[in-house]
Sequence to fold (327 residues):
Amino acid sequence: MIDLSTLPMRVAIGQFSELTDEQMIFAQQCGLSDVQMNTPKMPGDERWEYEDLAKAVARAAEFGQRLICLENVPVRFYDKIMLGADGRERQMENMAATVRNMGKAGIPILGYHWMPNSVWRTNSQEPIRGGAISNSFNLEIANERPMTHGRIYTEEEMWANYDWYLSRILPVCEEAGVRFALHPDDPPVPMLGGVARLFHCFENFKRALDTHPSPMHGLDYCHGCWSEMRGGEGVLESIEYFGTRGRIFYVHFRDVQGTAENFTECFINEGNSNPAAVMRKLRDVGFNGFIIDDHVPHMVNDSPWGHRGRCYSTGYILGLMDAVMAA
Ligand SMILES: [Mn+2]
Fold:
């Protein structure tokens, strides 16, 4: 397993589910060498096997790429765990096996979230700058939608389920050498579809990491979600707090206009935050993980993955990083 502490702050590419030739060549042409996959397409209804994970690592390596992170197992791998439902023990055993297999294959980071009903947006065709297409969210509209899981799941029970899981998975992560990186709830509001959301405010991230202080436990710091939380307020402070403690494992770099209750995803130089200030703060706290784009606006004649939007974001992030590292 690679020693992540020896690596510098750097930019990665990914947010795709398969390592196609085209995407690997694209990574090479961007001058990048760390690849992340988001909700990878891997065989397995309940868990990922070592052989398939090792194959993905080898596939990336063929193109000079390091498979640094898998973000998100399918929700069906741990939905009963999140909801405290019958069958969670079996899912727990399978999640432990997946983490062990990742460690054996040499993949050092697993990103996770705690949203049984996933990411919510209320408009996926929101026109933004120059007619680029983006996503937006409005809580009033979302609150008119029906319950997603048949009843109310309270904050208390979601915490109990969370603590049950983390106390079991983190020892496996430690043994396997796999870092477990928490993504915020998106949107970061206290409840959607009847299911309480935990990770919508600073205090709750602090509680998660204080309660489960394993060296393998940290954050997938989603700049976009942290910007959503309080309209951009608190972004620099939260990077300061978690970054100086070495708890930021990697970063999603994107931004929005607005707040959790009503926001639109935007290009990274027109959002709530000053992107240069965010990058400077990451440098100043000694962050040495990877930074990757996230949701990006869909630009004119863009591909389904969003090559044009991703080129804009990734190039922007690379330029910012070069500028602050040279300063
Ligand atoms: Mn994100």
About this structure: The chain has a mean pLDDT of 98. Residues 183, 222, 224-225, 252, 294 surround manganese (II) ion (CB under 6 Å). Residues 45 and 114 are 19 Å apart (CA to CA). The chain has eleven helices and 15 strands.
